[in-house]
Fold this sequence. Notes:
- This protein is an alpha/beta fold.
- Strands 2-3-1-4-5-6 form a six-stranded mixed beta sheet, sandwiched between helices.
- β4, α3 and β5 form a beta-alpha-beta unit.
- The chain is globular, with a radius of gyration of 17 Å.
- Belongs to the TRAFAC class dynamin-like GTPase superfamily. IRG family.
Amino acid sequence: MAEGRHRGNGRRSRGKFNLGVIGRSNSGKSSFIKLMLQSQLGPESPDIPKTDFLECTEKREKFEIPGCSVVLWDVPGVGTQNEGLEGYDERIEIEKYDGFVVCCGGPVTEYELALNNLIASHGRRYIFVRTKVDAAIENEKKAHPSTFDEEETLKKLRDGIIEKLSESGVTEFLVSNRHPDKFDFETLNFIIFDEGALASYMKSCNKKVKKENWKRKQVESDC
């Protein structure tokens, strides 16, 4: 998709919620945005960006969905040679976003911890998304074929996130961009795109909100 179609200054439009998708380079954030757009526009929509796995986001891109108050932004990754941590908040103009999705494609590192502190220092809140869960499961299965247990592997992934980010109180969401029907994607999709759900979540996401509460709301909404 042509960049000009999405270009904007990032300032909050009336009634709009600017949600920046952020994370380390190669964390799967561009693929995550593509998946979110497909869930709302359909997989064959011409407004779905083509994801090049050999390239990283160099300029922020804006994605608007007709009739939706949430505006998605693909924000350049942190922790690369071109995008270090120092001055990162100024380069991405962090104040122009109302909240964030922090994508992490592996174990939590100093970069995610730094992003946590950076976002909090600007009075913003975020959703933590562990991407590439299918790859983590497959690696564990290959490493321990005789004792492999998928549920136990998922628990280890969640526990590792909670241990590192316990003080922030954020709720972790496990996602596979290749298998959106598995793990926490449907609940996360509901939180982001259901009318009023995202703003409500952002107000409480640093208070150890249980995903089960949002899954229940999702079921009630579908009824």
